[in-house]
Design brief:
With 417 residues, the chain is of the alpha/beta class. It contains 14 helices and 13 strands. The chain folds into two domains: 89 residues, no CATH class; 317 residues, Leucine-rich repeat, LRR (right-handed beta-alpha superhelix), CATH 3.80.10. The protein starts with 6 loop residues before the first helix and ends in a 6-residue tail after the last helix. This is LRC34 protein.
Amino acid sequence: MSVHPDLHQRYVQACQNLGQSENPFIARVLQEAEKNYKMGWTKGITLKIAGNNYLMPVQRVTDDNLQVLTSVLQNTGFVTGLDLRCNVLTDAGAKHVATFLQENSTLRYLNLMFNDIGTTGAELIARALHRNETLVYLRMTGNKIGNKGGMFFASMLQINSTLEKLDLGDCDMGTQCLIAIATALTQNKSVKAINLNRPLLYSQEEETTVHVALMLKKNSSLVELHLCKHEMKNFGVERLCEVLYENSSLRYLDLSCNKITCDGVKFLGELLKRNQTLEILDLSANRIEDDGAIYLSEALALYNRTLQALSVVSNNISGKGLVALSDAMKTNTELSYIYIWGNKFDEATCMAFSELIQTGHLKPNCTDVEPYEVDGHIHLAELSHGLKKHYYWTPSCGEAMNKDANASLAIVAVSEF
């Protein structure tokens, strides 16, 4: 593969050839990539052309801008990642992306989250991935591809054997394509992480959760699963727990923003007593209350030594349940991350978590609260930590790769591959 370090000059020439005006943001990013190349960084470069960069003037990338950019990058071997989040790309831009994916043999990471790509664009990109053998991580978050667009990705999963991480959250997918994706994943052996957050579901029967459970019974490769905003209730949680007793691959389960109560958490508590695989459990924005917290704390204090991170943010838990969780952390040295903001703190809660931090059972950067004292009383302040700290946003300078307070789908870098 030939490598062209003169990216900026080639970009200027391509703009002239295609009769397009230059995008100064793209030009600046390409100049920076050239500089990195000349410093000896010849592989694994990700071009960060995100439209939500607030540290420099940004002219968001259009379909025409993308046409020029892909022509420049076609034979550029050292560019393995492309971050185009929060721009104004449409289905016309998706056509350029699809052509690029069919012809390029080095791109491993592509972030298209929060553009204006619809069903037609989803079809073009999914069909391109039938033949692409290099892309490992694709983020389509926030593009309204709908149920039909999701079906094209379900079909792609039956053919593609390279893609490892697929993010289809907030894409307005429906019941039909969720079932199709779950069915495809019963046979797909390459996908390690998938985000199916916030589908548009109009049934209370939880058919999609049942099909996901059937998939987990047969799938032995999936490590990370996001099922946020699935209208999941206790029946759905029970179906998942039934199959997770036998599943030995899933490490990260996201059940946030559902309708799970203490009765559903009772099944999770029993699962944690026997499951030796789960490492991250996100129950944020449910309603597990004190009884649910106590079920979890009993399992974590006496039986489970695998779970490393737990989020119970905004679950209507009061001091009784929160203190029980803090007590579990004193005996369970494996549980290192816990997030509790949005619950009902009393003085006992504040004292318990202050003691955890002071004694070293809980590191300050592994939770979302920080103790402070006023008039002899301990209170807890909120920290901006959490399992999804960098899901929608990543720092414009520095790295977001710190394991503390981050979900893996949000921070995977090309360099990891």
